[in-house]
Design goal:
The chain is α+β, with helices and mostly antiparallel strands. The protein has two domains: 164 residues, Fructose-1,6-Bisphosphatase, subunit A, domain 1 (Fructose-1,6-Bisphosphatase, Chain A, domain 1, 2-Layer Sandwich); 107 residues, 3-Layer(aba) Sandwich (D-Maltodextrin-Binding Protein, domain 2), CATH 3.40.190. Helices cover 32% and strands 24% of the residues. It is built from eight helices and 15 strands. The strands form three sheets. An eight-stranded mixed β-sheet has the order 4-3-5-6-7-8-9-10, sandwiched between helices. It is globular, with a radius of gyration of 18 Å. It starts with 15 loop residues before the first helix and ends in a 7-residue tail after the last helix. The structure holds D-MYO-inositol-1-phosphate (IPD). D-MYO-inositol-1-phosphate binds next to strand 5. The site of D-MYO-inositol-1-phosphate has 15 residues, from strand 5. This is inositol-phosphate phosphatase. It holds the Pfam family Inositol_P.
Length: 301
Amino acid sequence: MSTTRTVPALPDGVTVGELELLCVELATQAARFIRDERPERMGVAATKSTETDVVTVMDRRSEELLHRLIQQVRPDDGILGEEGADVEGTSGLTWVVDPIDGTVNYLYEVPAYAVSVAVVVGDARSQGGWRPVAGAVADPCLRLVHHAGVGTGAWTRPEGQRATSTAAQDASAQPAVRRLVASGEDRLARTLLATGFGYAPEVRARQAEVLLRVLPQVRDIRRIGSAALDLVRVADGSVDAYAESGLNAWDLAAGWLIAEEAGAVVVGEGEHPGKALTVAAGPALVEQVRTLFLAGAQPDR
Ligand code: IPD
């Protein structure tokens, strides 16, 4: 399996570093918003695919904020958001945003949710047709922002510490900015594996069957409740691997790049992670985890 990354062609005059800084800035603003403006009594504004798939007023308001900010700074880019943002764009770049990833945790005040902002090239609406070039996952509870650009490494910085130039330069001047490195674990039996479940009961039933096979083979599993934070955990080595079926582009776009830039390999049923399957782990482990999840699996489309 190849882990070589080539920097995709960007529109004239745009650099990966510049897009990465914008991702950090936008994700930070939205993370502050959902934390600081959280209404005293949070309610469910609507449900999506099922009764358990909730949207809060703050999901919508956070996406409106991101939409507005993106259109101010990059008016020609496309936008695809979990809560319905769908702008075609003409530049060849699309912003793929999850205004609150981990909405159920947000609703219940479980401190594991995030804002995920990525810039991708290709067709963000087609499975396998796009790739992230820059991304940030902002964690409002820990007040941290995790970010990466293709070829720039994966980094974590405190929310208040503005990105100035390259993360590597920032890190040498500011010790709180640190580089993320994925775990080197190579044995399933010692693997702490993050996973998650969809909202539809029939999908969950199939995921539970997969777990029956997975659980006896690994050290343990974690269900954190935010795919973006699961992928960040792969990047910082605080879990060894992550696997889930049913993810959408906005759940994984930024986390995919952050995990990859930290040395993990991110794949799906084939090369591209997505709805059928997303697996992230170090190079020595990823194929073992993928095989475990695929053995006899019914794809969750
Ligand atoms: C969900 C979370 C969860 C994952 C689900 C996602 P949302 O996103 O990332 O961890 O298991 O598959 O849909 O709905 O909270 O944005």
